[in-house]
Automatic annotation (TrEMBL):
<dbReference type="InterPro" id="IPR003697">
    <property type="entry name" value="Maf-like"/>
</dbReference>
<comment type="subunit">
    <text>Homodimer.</text>
</comment>
<feature type="domain" description="O-methyltransferase dimerisation">
    <location>
        <begin position="298"/>
        <end position="375"/>
    </location>
</feature>
<dbReference type="InterPro" id="IPR036390">
    <property type="entry name" value="WH_DNA-bd_sf"/>
</dbReference>
<feature type="compositionally biased region" description="Polar residues">
    <location>
        <begin position="222"/>
        <end position="234"/>
    </location>
</feature>
<dbReference type="GO" id="GO:0008171">
    <property type="term" value="F:O-methyltransferase activity"/>
</dbReference>
<keyword id="KW-0949">S-adenosyl-L-methionine</keyword>
<dbReference type="InterPro" id="IPR029063">
    <property type="entry name" value="SAM-dependent_MTases_sf"/>
</dbReference>
<protein>
    <submittedName>
        <fullName>Acetylserotonin O-methyltransferase-like</fullName>
    </submittedName>
</protein>
<keyword id="KW-0489">Methyltransferase</keyword>
<dbReference type="InterPro" id="IPR016461">
    <property type="entry name" value="COMT-like"/>
</dbReference>
<dbReference type="Pfam" id="PF00891">
    <property type="entry name" value="Methyltransf_2"/>
</dbReference>
<dbReference type="Pfam" id="PF08100">
    <property type="entry name" value="Dimerisation"/>
</dbReference>
<feature type="region of interest" description="Disordered">
    <location>
        <begin position="222"/>
        <end position="270"/>
    </location>
</feature>
<dbReference type="GO" id="GO:0046983">
    <property type="term" value="F:protein dimerization activity"/>
</dbReference>
<dbReference type="InterPro" id="IPR012967">
    <property type="entry name" value="COMT_dimerisation"/>
</dbReference>
<feature type="compositionally biased region" description="Polar residues">
    <location>
        <begin position="258"/>
        <end position="270"/>
    </location>
</feature>
Length: 624
């Protein structure tokens, strides 16, 4: 590729990391020839907006925290230190409000109807972190350059019918303000003043100018950066910290953004959209011991945090808060609603605040954006089914972990008094247990389904069969993502019987249901066989039986899409997969190459592997 911008070529040979899951940012930067890795940030976008004087300060601070989280995590978790980490955050502002990504369709409607007929601003805050690790330490020196860009956009007057048609297209859901100017959303726009790509998610022009300033000849920022900032201030030193997921705002190990109660005052950026400047993060002395201790404390307390999440979910705390008129309640009111003691409820709510699950202002508790996203029982991405499964099934199994390790067996019998293994066995014969299991699988499929369904280009295929597809949630995601695809969901008769509990809002007649046992019965004919969260449950022997049946059913050119948590090739992570393995019976967790080998022996060649950064990854293998 011809590099028109000489600055981009200056980055050759450097480990550049985009700390963003946004496919648009990836595309914009790839298009100009930048070589980089994508490591999506785990920083939760929960900064208290009220603490920022302007929307762009909020966007810049969020961008900075996203990038910092990745810069801190990489030396620890990826065992490599990036040279440059880029973070960004896009917000839409109208009527003094900051609009981020809608949590559901109603939210998208609220946003879009507010934007209708008006001019609004789109701000993207960007942080560029220049890092280098001090030799033989895990300390990271970091310089942060941040800036923002503003673009004005005017929407035409939009009828409700048009808005709903647009919302039902699914496009608004992962986009700030609930629209994508680069796609269908472009139809809503009357004019754009300013950088178009800034609206799409990344102000490329200003970014390249900033790089130009950073990588300009001697005397520039980077040349000074290992000693002093241009203002003569000390080098930023960022010790490695734990990921935001396990160290949410407000927790003891958290060292950056304000927590929900505003206890940590943010280092609110004074970023200006025309001048580059360097923010000084606190300088820390190396205190390796303290880092290790806080990691230990986090591990020791991990089970308490999980149980707080499970208990608050079981008591429906998040639903109760959502249902209140204003979305906020005091501890006494919550206690009354969940029929629990005031003191116990207050402690639970306070613990939830410390874990980033709730916010508290004065005495009023509200859900955080993360909880609204994943913890409302009727939300489109609700994890409540899986949380209930973890609480009722996985938790008891883990209380017997020591015996499981000593004996090398699954502890179902000890925990539940019955030998049980997967859906067919005695334990699962109870209706409510079956339903709970299906709800768990349903929520995983809902949350990961879109990423799995869009992981590969399947446009040349006409039919798919989702083997063991449980409630059909994944099958519907495939149908939604691929307009030319009909999907057959194949599962045990008792599963198919119960699918009535999970009827989708927008049923699609391209999805059909067939009852059968994939080990015993003939498989429906299809071009694509989907195995999502199936193979890990079975031994290699059983996997071979199933794959040979699929191979027989396949015509040349057909493919198998396996979706699982893929272990790293050295089996050192991700811990999510290795922790799950501890309560497994017959099955095992495997890496992408292990799956590819299993498939290869049945004539399927691994075509592509996709790490989705969601709950499940995916591999596509094609018949030779
Ligand atoms: C207005 C507008 C926004 N977007 C997307 O909205 C997301 C904003 O969210 P974010 O929080 O800044 O980023 P993210 O997607 O959550 O990714 P991450 O950086 O990992 O937080 C980004 O994707 C943008 O492209 C469009 O694609 N088109 C538009 O017209």
């Amino acid at each position: 590729m011809v590099l028109m911008n000489p600055v981009i070529s200056k980055l050759t040979g450097k480990l550049v990391v985009l700390a963003s899951a946004s496919p648009r940012r990836l595309e914009i930067l790839t298009n100009v020839g930048l070589r980089f890795e994508v490591v999506p940030s785990w920083f939760k976008e929960t900064l208290d907006k009220r603490l920022f004087k302007t929307p762009h300060e909020y966007a810049v601070e969020t961008a900075k925290q996203k990038a910092l989280e990745v810069a801190k995590r990489m030396p620890f978790k990826h065992l490599k230190t990036p040279d440059i980490v880029i973070g960004a955050d896009t917000v839409v502002t109208v009527d003094g409000l900051i609009l981020e990504k809608p949590v559901d369709k109603q939210d998208a409607y609220r946003m879009l109807s507010r934007l209708s007929g008006k001019e609004h601003s789109v701000f993207t805050g960007v942080a560029i972190i220049l890092c280098h690790e001090k030799e033989d330490t895990f300390q990271l020196n970091a310089f942060i350059i941040d800036f923002y860009e503003e673009t004005k956009v005017k929407f035409a007057d939009l009828s409700d019918d048009l808005l709903w048609e647009y919302i039902n297209s699914g496009e608004p859901m992962d986009k700030a303000g609930g629209y994508g100017i680069q796609a269908l959303g472009g139809m809503l726009v009357e004019y754009v003043h300013g950088d178009f790509l800034n609206v799409v998610g990344f102000p490329l022009n200003q970014f390249c100018k900033k790089l130009g300033l950073i990588f300009s000849p001697p005397g520039s920022l980077t040349h000074n950066s290992t000693q002093n900032s241009p203002q003569g201030s000390p080098v930023d030193t960022v010790p490695p910290a734990e990921p935001a997921a396990s160290s949410p705002p407000g927790s003891p190990t958290h060292n950056g953004p304000p927590d929900s109660q505003g206890q940590n005052i943010p280092s609110a950026s004074t970023a200006h959209n025309v001048s580059t400047h360097v923010n000084n993060v606190r300088e820390h002395e190396t205190e390796d011991g303290k880092e290790k201790l806080s990691k230990m404390i986090e591990l020791m307390d991990g089970f308490k945090a999980s149980k707080v999440l499970f208990t608050a979910s079981k008591l429906r705390v998040f639903d109760v808060l959502r249902s209140s008129k204003t979305g906020e309640l005091q501890a006494e009111d919550v206690a009354q609603e969940i029929k629990a003691s005031i003191m116990g409820t207050e402690r639970l709510l306070e613990a939830c605040v410390s874990l980033g699950l709730l916010q508290r202002t004065g005495k009023e508790y509200t859900n955080t954006a993360m909880s609204r996203h994943f913890l409302l029982s009727d939300g489109p991405l609700s994890l409540q089914g899986y949380i209930q499964h973890c609480n009722e099934l996985v938790w008891p199994l883990f209380t017997h972990l020591e015996t499981a390790v000593r004996e090398g067996t699954n502890q179902h019998e000890k925990a539940f008094g019955k030998t049980s293994n997967l859906f067919q066995d005695a334990y699962y014969s109870r209706h409510e247990v079956k339903l709970r299991f299906m709800k768990a699988m349903h929520s995983i499929a809902k949350v990961s389904g879109r990423d799995v369904a869009t992981a590969f280009d399947l446009s040349k295929y006409k039919t798919a069969c989702d083997l063991g597809g449980c409630t059909g949630a994944m099958a519907y995601e495939f149908a939604k993502a691929h307009p030319g695809l009909s999907v057959t969901m194949f599962d045990l008769p008792e599963v198919i019987e119960m699918r009535g509990h999970f009827r989708p809002h927008d049923a699609d007649d391209r999805v059909s249901f067939v009852a059968g046992d994939f080990f015993k019965d003939e498989l429906p004919k299809a071009d694509v066989y989907i195995l999502a969260r199936i193979l890990h449950d079975w031994s290699d022997e059983k996997v071979h039986i199933l794959l040979s049946k699929i191979a027989k059913a396949c015509n040349p050119g057909c493919c198998v899409l396996v979706s699982e948590i893929f272990l790293d090739e050295d089996r050192k992570g991700p811990s999510r997969g290795l922790l799950q393995a501890l309560s497994m019976t017959e099955g095992r967790q495997r890496s992408a190459s292990e799956y590819s080998l299993l498939l290869k022996s049945h004539g399927f060649t691994a075509a592509q592997v996709k790490h989705t950064h969601n709950l499940l990854d995916a591999i596509l293998c094609v018949t030779e």
